[in-house]
Amino acid sequence: MSGRAPSRSYDMIMKLLLVGDSGVGKSCLLLRFVEDKFNPSFITTIGIDFKIRTIESNGKKIKLQVWDTAGQERFRTITTAYYRGAMGIVLIYDVTDSRTFENVDNWYQTVTQHANEDAQIFLVGNKCDDNESRQVSKEQGQDLAQKLNIPFLEASAKSNENVDSIFYELASIIQEKHVDAGTGGNAANSGSGSVDVSQGGAAGIKNNCCS
Amino acid sequence: MSYTSYTDLKSVEESTIVRCPFKNCHARIIQVGTLPKVNVENSPDMTKLSEDDNMKQTETYFYQIDDVWEFDNIGVSRPAAELKEPIITSDTNEKVDIAVERLLICSECDKGPIGFAGIPKGSENHHQNLKYFLSCASVLYEVK
């Protein structure tokens, strides 16, 4: 038989975005800086646009598509198109830079303004391995998350602490929401309404990962 | 679990799983299924599993993946202008003109490149139009 679509190999797909001030380590949550002969430096220089990862949550196979902002946040040009279709948004600050923490409120406003009403926001304090330079305590993070009524984790892309937990926890929350809503996710319309970060993501934007 | 390299592979079944070639990773990348295999000349440099592969780089086979959701795990780089222009020929001897702009890496260990992606010439430059090419000789196979 020709033209038959292959059987679906997943129960749900989710688009997730990483947002936050530049330098907070968003890119590092997508592309760890590994020195290796098989990992030519040009890949770390180009940076990663997005990753597809398949995880299992509550017995369901979930495909995550996780997007980085391609440096657009530096120019405050993240467009509404970037947020379109996103079911989860990871709002990241740097625990060693209190200014990025102070900006979380701004990011929260921007995200709620542009993203889908039911998009789940998740607060992450990155670089928690660096206790010497820490400027924002874990309690401050927890308090803010409570105030905004969103889940919170501290993570370290460098030591890989909690990096996977962010995606597993966020996916699990979104999954529950959709079970509650009885929609079962939007796996059927894959490819449509997809997240668009292509504008401004042109070649030449350097990714200074883990600076 | 042991995996087979492309050169040692006797046959590819639909159930065959493509895995990351790197030690301590071997993440699942995609199921072979009915993916079309295309011949690519002048592709960007890909990961080689053995030095012998240097000898036969004039013709190289790639799996073509049109829908990114077919991947179980993959990392897609941002656009990079300086990549080589490949010449892609499908089974039907149809030539496909692709503007290569991205590289593929393992989403778990971040190593590669194990493939590339690009936009067919004439199509709008939008990520939804990306076609993906996974280098047959750069990955390992789990035959079930």
TrEMBL record, chain A:
One cellular component term (GO) for this entry is: plasma membrane
Tell me the InterPro entries matching this sequence.
P-loop_NTPase (IPR027417), Sigma_54_int_dom_ATP-bd_1 (IPR025662), Small_GTP-bd (IPR005225), Small_GTPase (IPR001806), Small_GTPase_Rab (IPR050305)
Task: Name the major location.
Answer: membrane
Tell me the leader sequence span: none
Concerning SMART domains, the annotation shows:
ARF, RAB, RAN, RAS, RHO
GO MF term list: GTP binding; GTPase activity
> According to Swiss-Prot or TrEMBL, what is its membrane topology?
Lipid-anchor
Q: SUPFAM superfamilies from the xrefs?
A: P-loop containing nucleoside triphosphate hydrolases (SSF52540)
GO biological process annotations for this chain's record?
exocytosis; protein transport
Q: Please give the name of this protein.
A: Ras-related protein SEC4
Q: Where in the cell is it found?
A: Cell membrane; Cytoplasmic vesicle, Secretory vesicle membrane
Protein family per UniProt: Belongs to the small GTPase superfamily. Rab family.
UniProtKB/TrEMBL annotation, chain B:
As one GO molecular function, the record gives:
zinc ion binding
What highest taxon heads this organism's lineage? Answer: Eukaryota
Determine if Chloroplast is one of this entry's keywords: no
Span-the-membrane segments of this chain are none
One Gene Ontology term, aspect cellular component: membrane
Q: Per the UniProt entry, what is one GO biological process?
A: small GTPase-mediated signal transduction
Pfam families assigned to the protein according to its UniProt record, in alphabetical order: Mss4
Keyword set includes Aminoacyl-tRNA synthetase: no
Give the record's keywords alphabetically: Guanine-nucleotide releasing factor, Protein transport, Transport
Q: Which Gene3D superfamilies match?
A: Metal Binding Protein, Guanine Nucleotide Exchange Factor, Chain A (2.170.150.10)
Matching InterPro entries, A to Z? Mss4, Mss4-like_sf, Mss4/transl-control_tumour
PROSITE patterns in UniProt: MSS4 (PS51796)
Checking PANTHER family in the record gives: GUANINE NUCLEOTIDE EXCHANGE FACTOR MSS4
Recorded protein name is Protein Dss4p
Specify the species: [Candida] railenensis
